[in-house]
């Protein structure tokens, strides 16, 4: 699943370059992975390829979007318009993945009322009033560890059931709430482990 966005990124590039077909060999070479890995990944989408040509790029893009669940728009609200939140607001590929950040909230009076990458920042105190009649599918938490639980509670009270948590803290949520926690230090730990392995002479397995 984690490789699918990279496949999509490359397929969009190839389409812009005028390509009509893409093969698993093309995708594997771009990602520096074994061809059999790419073939198994694409097979999971259920799309059949064409002998000698591979896959029609438009069809493969649609198949991956359906497989991941990005074939329909997913609207979100983002809480915390600091450095990380601002970076997410400026991430252009969300459009390709059908993620729409419809509202942004913060506590900082220097940010409230201003725009960040085309998104107006609202006062967190107005969150319930603004979202109660049309709650988003996803809540994105880019707040401090200390503020994360309260922010999650506010969203859950509005019937938001899917949280993307960038705070380095485990949230206490009801069983029917799904949390995807992103730990930046976790990625760095993996990189550091790879550095250690390579410098000790080990051969890394493919991701």
Walk me through what this model shows.
- 40% of the residues lie in helices and 18% in strands.
- The chain is of the alpha/beta class.
- It has a seven-stranded mixed β-sheet.
- It starts with a helix and ends in an 8-residue tail after the last helix.
- The model has no long low-confidence stretch (mean pLDDT 93).
Write the layout of secondary structure elements.
Elements: H1 4-16, E1 21-22, H2 24-31, H3 35-43, E2 55-56, H4 57-68, E3 74-79, H5 83-89, E4 99-106, E5 115-116, E6 119-123, H6 127-131, E7 138-141, H7 145-157, E8 162-165, E9 178-181, H8 184-199
Parallel strand pairs: 3-4, 3-7, 4-6, 7-8, 8-9
Antiparallel strand pairs: 1-2, 5-6
Helix pairs in contact: 1-4, 2-3
**SSE pattern, N- to C-terminal:** HEHHEHEHEEEHEHEEH
Total strands: the figure is 9
Which sequence of strands runs across the widest sheet?
5-6-4-3-7-8-9
Name the overall outline.
globular
Judged by helices, strands and strand pairing, the structural class is alpha/beta
What name is given to the CATH topology of the largest domain? Rossmann fold
| Proportion of residues in extended strands | 15-25%
Counted up, domains total 2
Low-confidence stretches: none
Helix content: 40-55%
Question: Please, how many helices?
Answer: 8
């Amino acid at each position: 699943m984690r490789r699918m966005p990279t496949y999509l990124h490359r397929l969009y590039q190839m389409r812009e370059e005028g390509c009509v077909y893409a093969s698993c060999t093309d995708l594997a070479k771009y990602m520096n992975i074994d061809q059999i890995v790419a073939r198994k990944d694409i097979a999971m989408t259920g799309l059949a390829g064409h002998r000698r040509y591979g896959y029609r790029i438009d069809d493969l893009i649609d198949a991956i979007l359906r497989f991941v669940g990005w074939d329909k728009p997913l609207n979100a609200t983002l809480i915390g318009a600091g450095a990380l939140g601002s970076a997410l607001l400026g991430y252009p590929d969300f459009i390709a993945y059908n993620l729409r950040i419809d509202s942004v909230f913060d506590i900082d009076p220097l940010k409230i009322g201003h725009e960040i990458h085309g998104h107006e920042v609202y006062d967190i105190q107005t969150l319930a009033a603004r979202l109660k009649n049309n709650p988003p599918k996803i809540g994105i938490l880019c707040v401090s560890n200390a503020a994360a639980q309260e922010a999650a509670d506010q969203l859950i009270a509005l019937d938001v059931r899917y949280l993307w948590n960038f705070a380095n803290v485990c949230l206490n949520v009801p069983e029917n709430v799904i949390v995807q926690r992103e730990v930046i230090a976790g990625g760095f730990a993996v990189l550091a482990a790879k550095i250690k392995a390579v410098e000790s002479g080990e051969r890394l397995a493919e991701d």
